[in-house]
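User: I'm putting together notes for a lab meeting next week and I want to include a structural view of one of the chains we've been expressing. I don't have a solved structure, so I'd like a prediction I can at least talk through. The sequence is below, exactly as it appears in our construct file.
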Amino acid sequence: MKKLLYIVLGLLAIAVVLVFTGNKSVHHEHTIKAPVGVVWKTLTEMEKYPDWNPVMELVEGEVQEGAQVKYRYTQEANKSYVIEATVVKIVPEQLLNQKGGIPLVLTFNHRYVLEPNDEGTQVTIHEDYRGIGVNFWNPQPVEAAYQRLNEALKTRAEQASI
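Assistant: Thanks for the context. Below is the predicted structure for the 162-residue chain, given as structure tokens.
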């Protein structure tokens, strides 16, 4: 019985360590030669995503604070997933923040940040991941997908501002 207790305590200790060491993030920035208002409108008109966005498509819900939404996320060709999130915070023309995942296993905190600059708008896509599963996961394909998303957003917003 004592041996079983030690095994359980050991496994519990490993799980705790994995939870607290499971931290990764992805980040991509792009300058878009368009005013913040145009970029924000492009980013938040989710019904038009199928026309230009190769990575995300809203399949359920409405993007407003506190709402639950579902996206079809296409990481790469022939690899798409439905992801559920909660819209945590919206600051028009500045921030769209959404969170989701499975607590302790893998959670995400996704942010689009828009900032005006001399050339137009700096767009940052940043996502933090936490949980046990993060220790066994490679974020590079997600970072590549967000780069494709930012490039598509740039093309669409710059065309809209002409």
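A couple of points you could mention at the meeting. Strands lie at 23-32, 56-60, 68-76, 79-91, 95-102, 106-117, 120-130. The longest strand covers residues 79-91.

User: Perfect, that's what I needed.
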